[in-house]
Automatic annotation (TrEMBL):
Keywords: Ubiquinone. This is Ubiquinone biosynthesis protein COQ7. It comes from Desulfitobacterium dichloroeliminans (strain LMG P-21439 / DCA1). It comes from the Bacteria. It holds the Pfam family COQ7.
């Protein structure tokens, strides 16, 4: 895969992950009295590790994490988090799962493209992307489970 195309796509994930960090931080605050608020806070920290790892990967390829992502993505994430919170916890969980599914789809596509390029030098990137995919999958399942439990009035708390 062309280095510039790879950097462009990694920067997409960088921006997406920053957006998710801010989204979940806002939701953690909005739903702080609920178990889901604690979940959102924890998920935000996992997403922050994705931001850091992708930034490191971009830098190791000789690129720079996009300034646009650093400026615009937090604003979008905070705004989206606030708006989604207004729809209520159940709807916020549903929308979060959809965002996570989009991330999974994009991660899967990039891994497939990297594997089909056949370059062994991109194995480290694929490992990172697959790890992020697994986290996004776990977040989706957790949001779906919490939503189902909320609908059945069986949400767990600690």
């Amino acid at each position: 895969m062309d280095r510039e195309d790879l950097l462009r796509r990694l920067n997409w994930f960088y921006s997406l992950e920053i957006n998710q960090v801010e989204l979940y931080k806002v939701q953690a605050n909005q739903f702080k009295d609920f178990y889901a608020g604690k979940v959102f806070k924890h998920v935000a920290s996992i997403e922050q590790s994705h931001v850091d790892n992708i930034a490191n990967q971009i830098t190791s390829l000789g690129g720079e994490p996009t300034t646009l992502g650093e400026v615009i993505s937090p604003i979008i994430g905070m705004s989206l988090g606030s708006l989604m919170s207004l729809t209520g916890l159940e709807r916020a969980l549903q929308l979060n799962a959809e965002i996570e599914r989009k991330a999974m789809s994009d991660y899967k596509k990039l891994v497939e493209d990297l594997v089909s390029s056949g370059e062994d030098s991109e194995e480290e990137i694929c490992t990172l992307l697959k790890s992020n995919f697994i986290d996004e999958h776990l977040h989706t399942a957790l949001f779906d489970m919490l939503r189902g439990n909320l609908m059945e009035d069986k949400i767990e708390t600690i």
